[in-house]
Each structure stands twice: as C-alpha cells, then as structure tokens.
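hi! just following up on the protien thing from before. the input was this:
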Amino acid sequence: MIRNEGDTLQRVILAAPLTEYAKINDLAAHNFTTLPDKERAINQHAYLRDLLTSFDVEVITLNEFEGHPNSVFVRDVAVITPDGALIMNMGLATRRSEVTWIEYELTNRHIPIIDRITDPATAEGGDVILAGDIAFIGHSSRTNDIGTDQVARVLLRMGYRVRIAQIPAPYLHIGGAMSVIAPGRVVCTEGVFPNKYFEGFETITVPQSDFISGNVITIRPNEVIADSTNKETIDVLRKNNVIVYDIDLSEFVAGTGGPSCLVLPVLRN
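and the predicted 3d structure came back as:
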C-alpha cells in the first residue's frame, strides 16, 4: 500500500490505450485538446510500461473501460492508502462511471475498498498526494469543497495531517503543480501554493511553464520519470541532484494528462 509517494515504487496499475483512448467524438466533453494518434499513444505507453518494469516495478495492465477514453488516466479514479483503496467520485461528467470499473478491478486483485467519495462531493485521485504523515489535497476544478472535506475525513482517521490548497487553472489537479520526489522532499510550481504549505519539507521550486510543470512519477527517492516537453522542470531537478528519465508522453499531454496520471501506485516501500 502507499503511505509516502516519495518511497520506492514496487507495484502499479496501468490501463493500456489499445482501443478507447483515440476513439473520441467530443474532445471538449473528455477534456482533450487534440485527437491522439492511436499508434503513437500505444507505443509511448508501452515504453513507459517497459521502463517501469526495468526498475523491477510490478506492472498490472488493465483493459481500458469501454467508452471511456480517459480511463488510461488511472491515477484519478482511486487513491491507494496504507489501509486500502479510497474510491473517488469524478469531477468530469464523462468519467463518472469509471469508478465502478476500477472498484471491480481492485476487488478482483484483493485490494480492500475502505471508503467511497459520494455526491454531492467530487474528488479525483490527482488531487491527493500522500507524504508520510502529511496528506496534500487540492481543491480544484475537479475536486470541490465537499470533496476535499470527505477525502480529509478519511485520511484524518488514518492519522494523516491534512493540508488543503486551492489549485488554480491551468492545473487540473494538485498533482500537476507538485510531486513528492523523496521522503521530506517535493518539487512544486512557483506561485501556486500558500506560504508555509510545505513547512517541514525541502522544496525544489520550478517555473509555471505548463499545466504539468510539477508532475513526475517517483520511482525511487530522487529518481523520477518526466515528460520530455517539461524541459525547465527537468533542468531544475537535475541541478538539484535528482535523476530524471525524460520520455515522450505527448499523446497523453494531448489528453491533458501528465506522467503520474497514467500510473495508479499500489505499493511503495
């Protein structure tokens, strides 16, 4: 299970973009900027999977949820906590049914369901980042104030101390503007978070260059995967002794997702 996103990644869930991801009639309804190229998306996703496997990460690959192109962004539909899975309630209308799909898949893999976010709350997994005894929660266009309250109540019961921040556009989630890259260390986007939000953490601040400027996948402490277009962030991280594997995930950026959106971490140690 997951207590700290800065710990070593051991097991993840992915959903391969084989059929649904490039099958979109209404780009705006699914929040895509352009129609993805199917073959490029398949190849980019396979490269990410193989890279994770090369670090001895166990990769569980799901079939996409039929009729739901955003289901490749598995991070958003659940949060894996130390006690089990918190099932979210999606803020984007076209994604609402994905939660039944992910709950079925998690249950089949013997991952306990500990709670569910329910109407009128909306909350997505990209707005929850676990960092030891601190839980960072984003109040965003996808996670409303009732959603932040419901998520906070669940995590407070587990002993987390909760910090909530208002996440402005163009960031869809808090995960676009920050990531935990090692225990006690975060990368965060300049000018987004209130003073003292990261009190007790070492921070690496990066420019507001893109809606995924703070988004990376942490493999091991101070070792991350980033989208290759996120050049300013990559440069800053490397100057701060972070190992960065930059890969092309442009077909998923077209779907307004960053690297971590494609990965549901199940186990870190």
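The mean pLDDT is 95.
The helical segments are 27-30, 38-54, 98-108, 145-157, 231-239, 250-253.
cheers
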